[in-house]
Amino acid sequence: MPASESRVRVKRVDNVSQVEFIDRNILDEGNIQMIGEEIGRLVDAEDKPKLLISFANVEHLSSAALGTLITVNNKIRARSGQLRLANIDPQIYEVFVITRLNKLFQIHENTEVAMKSFT
CA within 20 to 30 Å of 55's CA: 2, 38, 70, 101, which one? Predict the structure, then answer.
C-alpha cells in the first residue's frame, strides 16, 4: 500500500509507537478498516507493543471506529502490551463516557501525560 494512502502518521518515541490520525472525520467504513489494518501491523510487529493513539485532529468518530479501537485494544492486551489514548475532543469523550469505553481505555489529556503513564 503506498504511503500516500495511509490514514495515520506514526512515529517512534522511546519504545512507544505514537499514532495520529490524518482525517478530521473518521466515519468512512473503508478508511476505518485501513486504519485498523495499519495499527494492527504495528501491534503485530512487537512482542509487547506500546501504542499511543492521539485524537488531536479528530472532530468526528463513528461507532465502527470505536469498534476498531476495541479490537486493537484486545489485540494489544493479548500480547501483554499497553494502549493509551490522548487529546480526545470533549464531544468525542462524551461518547466514550456514554458507552463506558472510558473505563476500558486509559485516556489522557495530552500526549505528554500519556507518555509518562507507560510502564
Answer: 2
